[in-house]
Specification:
This protein is mostly helical. It contains twelve helices and no strands.
């Protein structure tokens, strides 16, 4: 499984697309946090990273599907997936290898952003940043990236076209992130039911963790969501192998 994880890492960084995706992610975050007028933290008068943690999930909608779109689709297209099937690995081990490889790439993209709270802490004259909320928000982003990765791996198993895998992956991630929030706010949805519909969406749990409170229910939600899509991917691979 580690071999597949390592291959996923090398495959992503073997083309300029991988570097461009991460560089754009970091540049857009930097611009949003330090340059754009309405979100520039330097003009707020107090140190916080709310604007960063508000925009990062949206940028993840493009970054993570870019990371995962080739995971299985490209393997099937060029025929190397048949080689993977000959290895003494179960379909779930193959899926997990690609899953953890993609997570490592996502973490590598997120890691340079740690310089943001460090900079704000140094620039702040009084108090500094809320360390608890910042750590909680980073944990939320990591869990969000894990969930998006599981979804992206699944959509990559549905097609041999990497562009289609990217678009479908981004759409499902978007639907899971704000789709249920939007449905819960429809005028004909009863208030009691609206709450439970909102609970299904990612944004509800991400906002909860971002407050600095790590609730077991939110962690279980992200874990269950990720396992569900990995299980669907495993079943898809088994169906393809049976044909």
């Amino acid at each position: 499984m580690w071999m597949i994880c390592k291959k996923e890492w090398q495959q992503f960084f073997s083309t300029i697309t991988g570097y461009i995706a991460i560089i754009l992610f970091l540049i857009l975050n930097g611009l949003y946090l330090f340059v754009f007028a309405e979100t520039n933290v330097l003009d707020f008068g107090y140190a916080n990273l709310n604007s960063f943690f508000a925009i990062a999930p949206w940028l993840f909608l493009f970054l993570v599907p870019t990371v995962t779109m080739r995971s299985i689709a490209e393997e099937v297209k060029i025929g190397t997936f048949e080689i993977l099937r000959t290895l003494p690995l179960t379909p779930m081990q193959i899926v997990c290898g690609k899953f953890f490889g993609a997570i490592l790439i996502t973490v590598a993209a997120l890691l340079p952003t740690v310089v943001y709270p460090i900079c704000l802490q140094q620039l702040s004259s009084v108090g500094g940043i809320d360390v608890g909320a910042t750590i909680g928000s980073y944990i939320g982003l990591l869990l969000l990236g894990i969930a998006y990765t599981a979804i992206g791996i699944f959509t990559s198993s549905l097609t041999q076209n990497t562009i289609v895998a990217f678009l479908v992956g981004a759409f499902i991630c978007l639907l899971m992130y704000i789709g249920f929030d939007a449905i819960s706010k429809l005028p004909f949805v009863p208030g009691g039911l609206a709450y439970y519909i909102e609970l299904i969406g990612i944004n509800f749990h991400y906002k909860s963790i971002s407050k600095g409170v790590l609730d077991v229910k939110d962690v279980v939600y992200f874990a269950a969501l990720s396992v569900t899509f990995l299980w669907l991917t495993r079943n898809k691979l088994m169906d393809n192998s049976a044909r």
